[in-house]
Amino acid sequence: MFGLAEIKAMNEAEKPPVPSRFNGLYLPNKSDKLKTDLTSQLIAYEQNELNEEQKLNFFQRLVNTGIVWKLQEHYGRIAHSLLKAGLIKLRKG
Predict the structure, then answer these.
(1) Domain range holding 68?
(2) 53 partner at 20 to 30 Å CA-CA among 9, 16, 20, 89?
(3) 89 lies in a domain?
(4) Contact 3/67 with Cβ under 8 angstroms?
């Protein structure tokens, strides 16, 4: 299970080396954008800054990516409750 600090550390550790022709600019790819967005959403959730619709979208996204099952148990319990209530859905395939 990973907490917010571990996720941030993984995000930083997973950045690929930057070719010198970019003069030190980091150009993220789609995978990096997903991590950044999820990190931002995690922080907003932890700081209770999301409204109900945003929370549902956040947990749906965590379930869709499978990340929810790798985070602290709290996230899995909330996702399970939302799934059971039919507020979010398991992604098939």
Answers:
(1) 4-84
(2) 9
(3) no
(4) no
